[in-house]
Amino acid sequence: MSDLHIEIIGLIAATFTTIAFVPQFLKIWKKRDASGVSVSMYVIMFIGICIWFCYGVLIESIAVITANVVSGILQMFIIVFTLIHRNNN
Amino acid sequence: MSDLHIEIIGLIAATFTTIAFVPQFLKIWKKRDASGVSVSMYVIMFIGICIWFCYGVLIESIAVITANVVSGILQMFIIVFTLIHRNNN
Q1: Which residues of B touch A15 (CB under 8 A)?
Q2: Number of domains in chain B
Q3: pLDDT tens per residue across span B24-53
Q4: pTM
Q5: Per-residue pLDDT at A89 exceeds 80
Q6: Rounded CA separation B42/B5 (Å)
Q7: Do B58 and A23 touch (CB under 8 A)?
Q8: pLDDT band at A21 (very low <50, low <70, confident <90, very high)
Q9: Beta-carbon count within 10 A of B45 CB
């Protein structure tokens, strides 16, 4: 199997795991309600995503890099939104 | 940086992203309540995890394989538990 085919498999995997995460993101975004969301857990997840990104760069994996850039942006939005929302209340 | 060091970075990343997921798992498990859990999203996530696992095997990444085996087992428990719980009600 060529490297290109392998990366395509990785990107398909990334698409599935990212799609599964989007409804949670939209729910928080639309309802403007992040209650029940544990910020500390999202921060731990975000740190993990940053390390995964570094790992992806080190092993030169396009799939790992792409997946973690997209997830990282979504997680960052949730963390910032949750903190702004809490300060406003 | 040696391959061993790179894999350790990947395993640290895996530890963070898995730890962040555990409280959600424990909450469902302890409360015996999976309401608000979308089974379809967990199934999509589980498919993604299975493809990530295949990708990990193809690129021979111990970190990707380990992370997805652990996450896969946790997700499978949630899916099975949610379905059993719904059938009992």
Answers
A1: 48
A2: 1
A3: 777 777 776 655 557 788 889 999 999 999
A4: 0.84
A5: no
A6: 32
A7: no
A8: confident
A9: 22
In degrees rounded to 5, what are phi and psi of residue B32? 50, 35
Amino acid identity for residue B77 in this structure: F
Assess B39–A contact: CB distance below 8 Å, yes or no.
no
Structural domain for B7, as ranges = 3-88
A89/chain B closest Cα distance in angstroms = 25
Question: Could you report the predicted ipTM of this complex, rounded to two decimals?
Answer: 0.83
Contacts of A24 in chain B (CB under 8 A): 41
Cβ separation A17–B49 shorter than 8 A: yes
Token pair belonging to A65: 């890099």
Contacts of residue B41 in chain A, CB cutoff 8 Å? 20, 23-24
Return the HEC string of chain A. Answer: CCHHHHHHHHHHHHHHHHHHHHHHHHHHHHHCCCCCCCHHHHHHHHHHHHHHHHHHHHCCCHHHHHHHHHHHHHHHHHHHHHHHHHHHC
| Two tokens, residue B88 | 């009992």
Nearest to residue B69, comparing CAs of B26, B18, B7?
Answer: B18
